[in-house]
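Continuing the batch. This is chain 6 of the set; chains 1 through 5 are on the previous pages. Same settings as before, nothing changed between runs. Recording input and output for traceability.
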Amino acid sequence: MILKRIVLFFAAALLSSGLANALPDEGMWLPMLLKQLNEADMQQKGLKLSAEDIYSINQSSLKDAIVSFGGFCTGEMISPEGLLLTNHHCGYGQVQAHSTVENDYLTKGFWAMNREQELPNPGLTATFIVRMEDVTKQVLSGIPATATEAAREAAIQKNIARVRSEAIAGTDYNAIIRPFFYGNEYYMYVTETFRDVRLVGAPPSAIGKFGGDTDNWMWPRHTGDFSIFRIYAGPGNKPADYSPNNKPYKPKHHLPISLNGVTEGDFTLVFGFPGRTSEYLTSHAVQEIYEVSNPAKINIRDTKLRILDKDMKASDAVRIQYAAKYASIANYWKKWIGENRGLQKANTIARKQQLEQQFQQWAATNDKRQQQYGNLMADFEKNYRSLDGITISRDYITEAALGIELIKQAADYMKLQELLDKKASESLINSTADQLADAAAGFYKNYNAPTDKKVFAALMALYYNDIDPKLHPEVFKTVQQQYKGDFEKYADAVYGKSFFTSEAGVKEAMAAIKAGKTQVLKNDPAFQLASGIVSHYRANILPTYTQVNDNLNLLYRTYMTGLREMQQDKKFYPDANSTLRVAYGEVEPYEPLDGIKYKYYTTLEGVMEKAAMEGIEDYVIPARLKELYEQKDYGPYGVNGEMPVAFIASNHTTGGNSGSPVINAHGQLIGTNFDRNWEGTMSDISYNPDQVRNIAIDARYMLFIVDKFAGAGHLVQEMTLVTDDTSGLAHVDSKRKSSEKEAKKEKKKEKKRKRKEKEPAL
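Output for chain 6:
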């Protein structure tokens, strides 16, 4: 027994040694912890800045140039006049909203040639991080170790509300507090959100979306995936609602743009708001994702995309209505395909199982650890087994049933019906009905009932056929009895009678409800279906799903405690949760398959090579781009007769990092992140250094398109372009101080002029 424990001890010691450290370039790190966790490593890899230069609350730093763009992407400040750079696909919805068949900015692009032409975007925001704070002690204060998950969560939310309130009292700031490591730690982000964000420029989709779905998640890539906005502020440079009197926001820091480009091995830093990762999932969860959930969701979205694609090609109006929705659906459809490929290639399930076996061996070497962690893996297996049928049913409800726009729209009216059933006050019912009627205009602007009807018939049939009948909603019995399981006939009946197929129908129904007719919703077939599916979900799927996930959250919190105890030499980074993070790596090629090696960069020549391929709509280019290529008219942005377009690096990124700046060792912008390679999409679950690469548009290509292609050189003149290795902070701070001096001089001159005007003539 003693010998066995010694062997197990050395096995655990080996695991917790350097072999257990985060793999090269892996990690999404908290900015406030860079000094203690990452600064030395980053500087060893080439960074010329300090951790304080990246994140500081006492002086301007790189963080002051980074924004959460709309809450779904990242953006960066690139001028002292509030210019914001992000991805084309991040600004796509705004470009679409301003487009019509007659004025098609999606196809032609948009460029504001002066401030008056910049277009407002109601509801679009840009959020800066003011500071971060570790609030773990405050959030977990007074919570007994024996509390149930529900009681624990209730107490935590109460504490969070108190801590948030105290943090922002007397300010116009907001604050978010998020759990890290499954609730072992809590961090607060104090934020400032600007509400007047205007569209300044976007290239035509033939540049901004070049490659389309054909190239999505792929490398080599040749996409000019960028768009430009401007933040406006009210008096005092503070956030304000849209007003023509607002002035361009003056950021605390903006990123200078390097014209030096990139070379293999260069240090790179990505600063942004990554969405969601699950790096510490057990093998049980990964197996469910790989074998069950991903294949089902891929099939559902594939079915929907084929229907949308056919209708969009048949009608320009439908194409514009569904352009952004199609891109959104296709994005994760292809991502899940690549994720499964990557999980298989990296043998992820087996590697997770090996770690779990080592964890159990480590726990077994100590009686206390055995008591605390010995049953963890068995408990994980038991809980995941109890989700059989539940998770897949949830996937079909969210992806198939609620993936049908009519059902999703009708489900949004369930709150109104609940008010009617409770006989709420007339004023509350009427105000809710008015809100829904007002919101309908936005929905129906981009809705086509005949297209949605085809989606309905196809996805409902998938839901019916692929899910165990024991987990079917009651409405399927009606379909079987009245329509013999024919979902096309069922679709005819629903879409022929439902008022949810048009804005006019909804407004008429809301008016009837306000007039006292309480059964309007219940008599609508789309509402009957939507409420039936949602009620089925709430009664038969959600309780088990919630209970098991509460159990799993406790297990993962315990597992993370054990892993960090076992691997004390490892630097752990928390899963992404849409909070500000730093990832760092280097410009690096990779080999996706045996015998194939990809370069780390692409050029405009590759765009022309793809454009020469016949029959691929995603590779059509504007004539002006071809003309510039043939003339080699690249301005100061080309190098050695080539025009760089994109490059790859080994930074650990995910959704939400779209639009994130890629920054060099000196704090200068060298690119804008927009994608990952297909083989690397599995990095949301497990990072593979040999395969994972983030893809960025080269900043020089962005400048080339703005200046030479669009003729919007006035925007470039706002930016700080550099050709030296001066620190990006020093360069911008120096320029800002110079501007402030000039402004003071002008102010003195103005005062002097006014005094002279008031002096009596001699």
